[in-house]
Amino acid sequence: MVFITFASAILAMFWVVLTGSFTIYNYILGLIIGYPIALISFDEERHHVSIARVPAILGNAIYYILYLYWRIFTSGIQMALRVLSPDMGLNTGIIAVDTEDDTDDVRIAGLSAHSISAMPGDLVVDFSEDNQVMYVHSLDVAASLNYLYKDQDHRLVYFHRIFNNDADDRKAKAKNDI
Amino acid sequence: MIFEIIAAFWFGLGVIISIASIVGMYRLPDVYSRIHAAGKITTVGVVCFIIGAGFLNPQWIPKLLVLATFIVLVNPVSGHAIAKAAISTGVPMQEGAVRNDYAEVIREKNPQ
Q1: Interface residues from chain A to B (CB-CB < 8 Å)
Q2: Which of A72, A91, A124 sits opposite B43 (nearest CB)?
Q3: What pTM value is reported for the model?
Q4: Closest CA to A111 of A129, A130, A93, A131
Q5: Taking CB atoms and an 8 Å limit, are B40 and A120 in contact across chains?
Q6: Sheet with B99-100, side-by-side order of all strands
Q7: What is the interface size between A and B, counted as CB pairs within 8 Å?
Q8: Is A93 in contact with B83 (Cβ distance < 8 A)?
Q9: For chain A, what is the radius of gyration of the CA atoms?
Q10: Dist. CA A49–CA A116, nearest whole Å
Protein backbone atom coordinates (compact mmCIF):
# COMPACT_ATOMS: atom_id res chain seq x y z
CA MET A 1 0.00 0.00 0.00
CA VAL A 2 2.73 2.44 1.01
CA PHE A 3 4.83 1.68 -2.00
CA ILE A 4 1.96 1.95 -4.48
CA THR A 5 0.80 5.27 -3.03
CA PHE A 6 4.36 6.54 -3.17
CA ALA A 7 4.82 5.36 -6.75
CA SER A 8 1.57 6.97 -7.87
CA ALA A 9 2.62 10.23 -6.17
CA ILE A 10 5.82 10.20 -8.24
CA LEU A 11 3.90 9.37 -11.42
CA ALA A 12 1.56 12.27 -10.66
CA MET A 13 4.58 14.56 -10.35
CA PHE A 14 5.71 13.52 -13.83
CA TRP A 15 2.17 14.16 -15.06
CA VAL A 16 2.19 17.70 -13.64
CA VAL A 17 5.58 18.50 -15.17
CA LEU A 18 4.71 17.08 -18.59
CA THR A 19 1.29 18.73 -18.82
CA GLY A 20 2.87 22.01 -17.70
CA SER A 21 0.00 23.18 -15.49
CA PHE A 22 1.16 23.46 -11.86
CA THR A 23 -2.15 23.31 -9.97
CA ILE A 24 -3.38 21.02 -7.19
CA TYR A 25 -6.31 19.86 -9.38
CA ASN A 26 -3.92 18.74 -12.07
CA TYR A 27 -1.89 16.88 -9.43
CA ILE A 28 -5.02 15.07 -8.23
CA LEU A 29 -5.86 14.17 -11.82
CA GLY A 30 -2.33 12.78 -12.14
CA LEU A 31 -2.90 10.69 -8.99
CA ILE A 32 -6.14 9.30 -10.41
CA ILE A 33 -4.40 8.32 -13.63
CA GLY A 34 -1.20 7.13 -11.93
CA TYR A 35 -2.74 4.91 -9.25
CA PRO A 36 -4.03 2.14 -11.57
CA ILE A 37 -0.70 2.16 -13.43
CA ALA A 38 1.19 1.75 -10.13
CA LEU A 39 -1.28 -0.95 -9.06
CA ILE A 40 -0.65 -3.15 -12.08
CA SER A 41 3.10 -2.44 -12.18
CA PHE A 42 4.14 -3.40 -8.62
CA ASP A 43 3.67 -6.63 -6.72
CA GLU A 44 3.08 -5.39 -3.16
CA GLU A 45 3.45 -8.73 -1.38
CA ARG A 46 6.70 -9.72 -3.00
CA HIS A 47 8.34 -6.31 -2.70
CA HIS A 48 7.24 -5.23 0.72
CA VAL A 49 8.68 -1.89 1.90
CA SER A 50 8.30 -0.45 5.40
CA ILE A 51 7.89 3.32 5.81
CA ALA A 52 10.92 3.63 8.08
CA ARG A 53 13.21 2.51 5.26
CA VAL A 54 11.86 4.88 2.59
CA PRO A 55 14.36 7.75 3.26
CA ALA A 56 17.35 5.39 3.09
CA ILE A 57 16.02 3.80 -0.10
CA LEU A 58 15.36 7.21 -1.67
CA GLY A 59 18.81 8.49 -0.70
CA ASN A 60 20.55 5.49 -2.21
CA ALA A 61 18.39 5.61 -5.35
CA ILE A 62 19.15 9.32 -5.91
CA TYR A 63 22.86 8.75 -5.31
CA TYR A 64 22.81 5.86 -7.78
CA ILE A 65 20.95 7.85 -10.46
CA LEU A 66 23.37 10.80 -10.18
CA TYR A 67 26.32 8.39 -10.38
CA LEU A 68 24.72 6.82 -13.46
CA TYR A 69 24.25 10.24 -15.14
CA TRP A 70 27.88 11.07 -14.54
CA ARG A 71 28.94 7.67 -15.88
CA ILE A 72 26.83 8.00 -19.05
CA PHE A 73 28.06 11.52 -19.73
CA THR A 74 31.76 10.68 -19.34
CA SER A 75 31.40 7.43 -21.30
CA GLY A 76 29.83 9.32 -24.23
CA ILE A 77 32.75 11.78 -24.29
CA GLN A 78 35.32 8.98 -24.01
CA MET A 79 33.66 7.04 -26.85
CA ALA A 80 33.61 10.17 -29.03
CA LEU A 81 37.35 10.71 -28.41
CA ARG A 82 38.03 7.03 -29.13
CA VAL A 83 36.29 6.96 -32.52
CA LEU A 84 37.98 10.22 -33.53
CA SER A 85 41.49 9.04 -32.60
CA PRO A 86 43.58 7.58 -35.46
CA ASP A 87 44.13 4.23 -33.71
CA MET A 88 40.84 3.31 -32.02
CA GLY A 89 42.51 0.84 -29.64
CA LEU A 90 40.14 -1.95 -30.62
CA ASN A 91 40.51 -5.27 -28.84
CA THR A 92 36.94 -6.53 -28.99
CA GLY A 93 35.45 -9.64 -27.42
CA ILE A 94 32.61 -11.00 -25.32
CA ILE A 95 33.26 -11.57 -21.61
CA ALA A 96 31.06 -13.62 -19.26
CA VAL A 97 30.46 -11.70 -16.01
CA ASP A 98 28.74 -13.23 -12.99
CA THR A 99 26.16 -10.97 -11.31
CA GLU A 100 27.34 -12.41 -7.93
CA ASP A 101 23.83 -11.84 -6.62
CA ASP A 102 22.46 -14.43 -4.20
CA THR A 103 18.86 -13.19 -4.09
CA ASP A 104 17.65 -14.20 -7.59
CA ASP A 105 16.11 -10.72 -7.91
CA VAL A 106 15.63 -9.99 -11.61
CA ARG A 107 15.55 -6.25 -10.90
CA ILE A 108 19.13 -6.41 -9.64
CA ALA A 109 20.24 -8.39 -12.71
CA GLY A 110 18.50 -5.88 -14.98
CA LEU A 111 19.94 -2.80 -13.26
CA SER A 112 23.43 -4.34 -13.28
CA ALA A 113 23.13 -4.85 -17.03
CA HIS A 114 21.87 -1.28 -17.47
CA SER A 115 24.75 0.07 -15.43
CA ILE A 116 27.36 -1.91 -17.37
CA SER A 117 25.86 -0.75 -20.68
CA ALA A 118 26.37 2.83 -19.47
CA MET A 119 30.14 2.31 -19.19
CA PRO A 120 32.48 3.42 -22.00
CA GLY A 121 33.13 0.44 -24.26
CA ASP A 122 30.93 -2.13 -22.53
CA LEU A 123 27.55 -3.45 -23.63
CA VAL A 124 25.52 -6.33 -22.26
CA VAL A 125 24.42 -8.49 -25.19
CA ASP A 126 22.69 -11.39 -23.43
CA PHE A 127 21.91 -13.19 -20.17
CA SER A 128 22.28 -16.85 -19.30
CA GLU A 129 19.10 -18.90 -18.76
CA ASP A 130 19.13 -18.44 -14.97
CA ASN A 131 19.90 -14.68 -15.14
CA GLN A 132 23.16 -15.19 -13.24
CA VAL A 133 25.72 -14.59 -16.01
CA MET A 134 25.86 -11.48 -18.20
CA TYR A 135 27.61 -11.63 -21.57
CA VAL A 136 29.36 -8.29 -22.00
CA HIS A 137 30.67 -7.09 -25.35
CA SER A 138 33.75 -4.98 -24.76
CA LEU A 139 35.75 -2.76 -27.09
CA ASP A 140 38.93 -3.33 -25.08
CA VAL A 141 38.85 -6.68 -23.29
CA ALA A 142 42.02 -6.24 -21.25
CA ALA A 143 40.93 -2.86 -19.86
CA SER A 144 37.38 -4.05 -19.12
CA LEU A 145 38.56 -7.11 -17.17
CA ASN A 146 40.33 -4.76 -14.75
CA TYR A 147 37.16 -3.08 -13.50
CA LEU A 148 34.10 -5.17 -14.45
CA TYR A 149 34.15 -7.51 -11.42
CA LYS A 150 35.25 -4.81 -8.98
CA ASP A 151 32.48 -2.43 -10.09
CA GLN A 152 29.89 -5.19 -9.88
CA ASP A 153 30.67 -5.70 -6.16
CA HIS A 154 30.40 -1.95 -5.58
CA ARG A 155 27.03 -1.74 -7.40
CA LEU A 156 25.52 -4.70 -5.57
CA VAL A 157 25.89 -2.92 -2.21
CA TYR A 158 23.70 -0.06 -3.44
CA PHE A 159 21.18 -2.32 -5.18
CA HIS A 160 20.66 -4.33 -2.00
CA ARG A 161 20.13 -1.11 -0.05
CA ILE A 162 17.68 0.23 -2.65
CA PHE A 163 15.72 -3.02 -2.86
CA ASN A 164 15.56 -3.50 0.88
CA ASN A 165 17.67 -6.67 0.99
CA ASP A 166 19.73 -6.57 4.18
CA ALA A 167 22.74 -8.82 4.35
CA ASP A 168 21.28 -10.40 7.51
CA ASP A 169 17.91 -10.96 5.83
CA ARG A 170 19.62 -12.72 2.96
CA LYS A 171 21.58 -14.99 5.28
CA ALA A 172 18.36 -15.90 7.15
CA LYS A 173 16.64 -16.59 3.85
CA ALA A 174 19.48 -18.84 2.70
CA LYS A 175 19.23 -20.79 5.98
CA ASN A 176 15.47 -21.26 5.52
CA ASP A 177 16.00 -22.50 2.00
CA ILE A 178 18.41 -25.17 3.24
CA MET B 1 21.67 37.88 -25.54
CA ILE B 2 24.23 36.18 -23.28
CA PHE B 3 21.90 33.21 -22.86
CA GLU B 4 21.60 32.88 -26.61
CA ILE B 5 25.37 32.71 -26.94
CA ILE B 6 25.57 30.02 -24.23
CA ALA B 7 22.75 28.10 -25.96
CA ALA B 8 24.59 28.34 -29.29
CA PHE B 9 27.70 26.93 -27.60
CA TRP B 10 25.76 23.89 -26.31
CA PHE B 11 24.07 23.38 -29.70
CA GLY B 12 27.48 23.45 -31.38
CA LEU B 13 28.85 20.92 -28.91
CA GLY B 14 25.82 18.70 -29.57
CA VAL B 15 26.41 18.86 -33.32
CA ILE B 16 30.11 17.98 -32.95
CA ILE B 17 29.33 15.01 -30.68
CA SER B 18 26.58 13.76 -33.02
CA ILE B 19 29.01 13.95 -35.96
CA ALA B 20 31.52 11.93 -33.90
CA SER B 21 28.79 9.32 -33.49
CA ILE B 22 28.33 9.06 -37.27
CA VAL B 23 32.11 8.83 -37.78
CA GLY B 24 32.11 5.98 -35.26
CA MET B 25 29.32 4.20 -37.12
CA TYR B 26 31.50 4.18 -40.24
CA ARG B 27 34.87 3.41 -38.66
CA LEU B 28 34.02 0.63 -36.21
CA PRO B 29 34.24 -2.89 -37.65
CA ASP B 30 31.11 -4.86 -36.65
CA VAL B 31 27.51 -4.58 -35.41
CA TYR B 32 28.30 -4.77 -31.70
CA SER B 33 31.00 -2.09 -31.83
CA ARG B 34 28.75 0.17 -33.87
CA ILE B 35 26.01 -0.06 -31.24
CA HIS B 36 28.51 1.44 -28.77
CA ALA B 37 28.96 4.47 -31.03
CA ALA B 38 25.28 4.80 -31.91
CA GLY B 39 23.98 4.44 -28.35
CA LYS B 40 26.43 6.15 -26.05
CA ILE B 41 27.65 9.09 -28.06
CA THR B 42 24.20 10.17 -29.25
CA THR B 43 22.92 10.14 -25.66
CA VAL B 44 25.44 12.83 -24.76
CA GLY B 45 24.75 14.70 -28.00
CA VAL B 46 21.01 14.90 -27.34
CA VAL B 47 21.59 15.94 -23.73
CA CYS B 48 23.77 18.82 -25.01
CA PHE B 49 20.89 19.96 -27.24
CA ILE B 50 18.52 19.78 -24.27
CA ILE B 51 20.83 21.91 -22.10
CA GLY B 52 21.04 24.45 -24.93
CA ALA B 53 17.26 24.55 -25.23
CA GLY B 54 17.05 25.17 -21.47
CA PHE B 55 19.22 28.27 -21.84
CA LEU B 56 17.15 29.48 -24.79
CA ASN B 57 13.84 29.24 -22.94
CA PRO B 58 14.02 28.78 -19.13
CA GLN B 59 10.27 28.04 -18.94
CA TRP B 60 10.89 24.66 -20.53
CA ILE B 61 13.41 23.52 -17.90
CA PRO B 62 11.08 21.15 -15.90
CA LYS B 63 9.92 19.44 -19.08
CA LEU B 64 13.45 19.25 -20.47
CA LEU B 65 14.69 17.66 -17.22
CA VAL B 66 12.07 14.90 -17.53
CA LEU B 67 12.96 14.46 -21.20
CA ALA B 68 16.70 14.18 -20.42
CA THR B 69 15.99 11.64 -17.68
CA PHE B 70 13.99 9.41 -20.01
CA ILE B 71 16.57 9.59 -22.78
CA VAL B 72 19.47 8.81 -20.46
CA LEU B 73 17.65 5.89 -18.83
CA VAL B 74 16.23 4.36 -22.03
CA ASN B 75 19.13 4.65 -24.48
CA PRO B 76 21.29 1.85 -23.00
CA VAL B 77 18.19 -0.39 -23.04
CA SER B 78 17.63 0.19 -26.77
CA GLY B 79 21.31 -0.58 -27.40
CA HIS B 80 20.92 -3.82 -25.47
CA ALA B 81 17.79 -4.73 -27.46
CA ILE B 82 19.61 -4.38 -30.79
CA ALA B 83 22.65 -6.31 -29.52
CA LYS B 84 20.43 -9.10 -28.19
CA ALA B 85 18.60 -9.34 -31.52
CA ALA B 86 21.94 -9.47 -33.37
CA ILE B 87 23.43 -12.20 -31.20
CA SER B 88 20.22 -14.28 -31.22
CA THR B 89 20.21 -14.35 -35.01
CA GLY B 90 23.91 -15.30 -35.06
CA VAL B 91 25.55 -12.16 -36.41
CA PRO B 92 29.32 -12.79 -36.07
CA MET B 93 31.84 -10.51 -34.43
CA GLN B 94 34.76 -9.10 -36.42
CA GLU B 95 37.64 -11.40 -37.39
CA GLY B 96 40.08 -9.99 -34.86
CA ALA B 97 37.94 -10.57 -31.76
CA VAL B 98 40.25 -11.71 -28.95
CA ARG B 99 37.76 -13.45 -26.70
CA ASN B 100 34.30 -14.99 -27.08
CA ASP B 101 32.71 -16.46 -23.97
CA TYR B 102 29.39 -16.63 -25.79
CA ALA B 103 30.63 -19.34 -28.19
CA GLU B 104 29.86 -22.13 -25.70
CA VAL B 105 26.29 -20.88 -25.30
CA ILE B 106 25.82 -21.07 -29.07
CA ARG B 107 27.30 -24.59 -29.07
CA GLU B 108 24.84 -25.68 -26.33
CA LYS B 109 21.90 -24.23 -28.25
CA ASN B 110 22.84 -25.85 -31.58
CA PRO B 111 24.65 -29.13 -30.88
CA GLN B 112 26.09 -30.36 -34.19
Answers
A1: 14, 17-18, 20, 68-69, 72-73, 75-77, 79-80, 82-84, 88, 90-96, 113-114, 117-118, 120-121, 123-126, 128, 135, 137, 139, 141
A2: A72
A3: 0.76
A4: A131
A5: yes
A6: A122-127, A133-138, A93-98, B99-100
A7: 131
A8: no
A9: 20
A10: 27
pLDDT tens digits, B30-40: 888 888 888 88
Q: What is the DSSP string of chain A?
A: -HHHHHHHHHHHHHHHHHHT---HHHHHHHHHHHHHHHHHH--TTTT---GGGHHHHHHHHHHHHHHHHHHHHHHHHHHHHHHHSSS---B-EEEEEE---SS--HHHHHHHHHHHHTSTTEEEEEE-TTS-EEEEEESBHHHHHHHHHHHHHHHHHHHHHHTT--HHHHHHHHHHH-
The end-to-end CA distance of chain A, in Å, is 31
- Residue-wise pLDDT for A113-158, tens only, equals 888 888 777 888 888 877 788 888 888 888 888 888 888 887 887 7
Please report the ipTM that was assigned to this predicted complex. Answer: 0.78
Residue of A nearest to B60 (CA): A20
Cβ of A80 within 8 Å of Cβ of B100? The answer is no
